[in-house]
Design goal:
Elements (H helix, E strand, L loop, with lengths): L9 H15 L6 E3 L2 H5 L7 E2 H4 L5 E5 L6 E5 L2 E5 L5 E3 L5 E2 L2 E4 L5 E4 L4 E2 H11 L7 E15 L11 H4 L5 E15 L12 E7 L3 E10 L7 E6 L1
Antiparallel strand pairs: 1-8, 2-7, 3-4, 3-8, 4-5, 5-6, 9-15, 10-14, 11-12, 11-14, 11-15, 12-13, 13-14
Amino acid sequence: METRHCGCSCISDITRAALKLEKDRGENIIYQASLMSALLSGVYEGETTIRQLLEHGDFGLGTFNHLDGEMIAFNSDVFQLRSDGSARSASPDQKTPFAVMTFFNPTHEYTIKEPHSRQQIHDIIDANVASQNIFCALRIDGHFDKVDTRTVPEQHRPYKPMMQAVEEQPVFHIEQQDGVLIGFLTRNLCRGSMSPVITNTLLTSNAVVAVMCSTIRSGKAGSPLVLLKNW
């Protein structure tokens, strides 16, 4: 039986199309380094640098090699929050085993004039996202009555699976703090590649924290502003 080849490469065609889309409409791209399933399995070392991440976005979340702190990218600045509660600017040469980045240009803006819980914020987002299959990046500027946070401590070989590592994470409590909360809403269809939940991180004047639960209200700076970017 004679086998004929069409002379084209589907993989090459898809790659060229994706690169062209990123060049022409980079603001509509979500860039991801590695998979959530790999991180959950204990793959805590990657080769992607912070410098490389910033080529693909000015806004994002992730972690650092060895799970050495939470990563937050905000206005092209990247911060590292460690399990001792300290926060510092990340070095361009630091590497990540997992991160999600985008260029944040909001498509929706909402003003909140009364206290809202985290669940109420989720409800606002769900009510304004057109489809359960759409990604959403979010930013909330406001005054937070209460924020509970956590950060996984740095891991060492032989690595534990993520679900064991998080059992050791310290929890911090913050009250009456102005700040900016950022996050991503991902969907169940991406289970394995991303976490199918809203992941939030709070940036304050003196710290960056991964948010477990929070209550937001209008404060001295005025009413909280919710900014959403849909795809």
